[in-house]
Write a structure and sequence with these properties.
mainly alpha
Amino acid sequence: MKKYIIVLFIVSTVFFGCSDDFLDKQPNGQISSGTFFQTGQDAVLALTAVYDKVQHFRGPINGHASNAWDVIGLAWSHASIEHPDLLSRYGVMRTGTVQSDQFEINWIWEQSYIGVRRANEILVNVPPIEMDEALKSRILGEAYCLRAYFYFKMFEWWGGVPIVDKLIATQEETLIPRATTEEMLAFITGDLQEAESRLPQSYGAADLGRVTQGTAKVLLAKVLLWQQNHPQALSKLQEVESIGYALVDDYASLFDGSNENSSESVFEIQFEPVAGKKEGSALSLFYAPNGEGFVPNGGWGLDRPLQDMVDEYETGDSRLPASVFSLGDTFTKANGDVRTFVDQVNGTGFAIRKYVTDPATGTTDAIDYGPQNWHEIRYAEVVLMLAEAYLQNNQKDEAVNQINRLRARQSVDLPLLDSGTMDIQDAWDALIHEYRVEFAFEAHFGYALRRWGLHRTFYNDKGVPNQKDLMPIPQKQIDFSEGTLEQNPEYQ
C-alpha cells in the first residue's frame, strides 16, 4: 500500500484540507465531498486519507503529528520515563495527574474525530458510485474497520464518547452526548462485524498494509475480552488461528525495517520516506539515545527505559538487547561507523533500541525519515490474548502452552514453563510478565493492564500511585458542547 502515500497529499489538500472540522463546512475554492466521489479511484484516494490519519493521530510533538508514536499507551505501560522536557506534558499521563485542559489530550481527541469523519465520508458517499462491486465492498469494509479502530482507541482512552455515524451539517448536530460503555462496544462490534464480512484475509504486494479480515477479528476479540465474554473471545481468536499467521523467528528483525508485513503482521501501519512528504517514521529519532549521533538529527531519547523494565527480563532473554541499549552497547550506522552508548545526558543508563535504525541513504527530512513500520497488532499479541482467554475459561494448561510459544521462538529460546507446577495465579503472573517483555515500548501493555483491571495495583507496587482508569474529556470539547459532554468522574 505504500505506493498510495504519494497520492495522499493530492487528496488531502484538494478534498480534506478544509473539511476536517466537526462541522461540515463547504471549502471555498476546493473540491467538496459532494463533487469528489465520482469514480472508484476517487473512493480509493479517499480511503488512503483515512489510513493517513491512522499514521498520525495518537501522539503530537509540538503540535504536530508524530507517526504512530502512541504517547498514552507508552505512558500507561510503565516501561520508560519521559525526556525531562516532556515531563509536564507526558509525565502527567504516566503519573495520573493529567488535567482536562492539557493540549495533547484535546489534540488526540480532535485527530481521532478527523479519522472518524474521513471514514464516514466513505461510508456515506461511496455506496452510490458506479464501480466494481467487489472493490466497493472491500473499500466499505476497510472504512468500517478503520472507524471501529478509531472508536476503540477512544474507548480505551476516554470510555464512552459521542458516536458520530453520519456527516454533520449544523452546529446543533454536534451536541451529541457521550455514549455508554455498552453502547460504544456495541457500535464498534457492529462496524467490525460488517468489516469482517467484507474484507479479504490477505492482499497482493501492491496493497500490503491494509486492514484485513484478521484485523477485524482480533479487534472483535479485544472487544469481547473487554466485555468479559471470554467463551466468545476464545472462539474468535481460534478463528484467527485458522488464517495462518505465524511468529517470526528473528525477534529483532520485526523492528529494524528488514522484515515488514511478515507472517506476524496482523495490522502494520506503513511508513516510507518520500522526499518532502513526511511519510517516513519518526520513531528512530524519538527513541534513539539523546544526542549520541546514532541517527540523523542526533536522537531525542523522548522515552528512556526504567531500571524496573530492564529487571523484568530473565537472564538470557535476547529480547532485552533487541529492545534496550545498556551502557557500552554498540550501534553500527549505515556508513559502517560504530557508536557506543554512553548515556551522555545522564538519563536512566538505558535507551530504547527497538525501532532505532540509521537510514541507508541519509535523509531530506529532519524528523520523519525512518523506513520501519509500526506494529499495531502483531500475531504475538494474538497468542497472548489466547492465553488470556484460556485462563479466563479456566484452561490453565492451554494458556501456559500459548505463553510457551513466545518463549520457544528461535531467537528467544527461553526455558519452557511447566504448567504442572503452576496454579492459576502463577499462570497469570507468567502472562503479565510475557506481555510486558514481548511488547516493551510498543504501547500495548498498559491497555492490557486496564482490560484486566490490574493497573492500579501494578502501578502502586511500582511506586506510582494516583492511577486512573481513563483520560479526562478535554475541557475545550466540554465547553464546545455547551455542557452536553460530561467529564469522567475521576476528574470532576
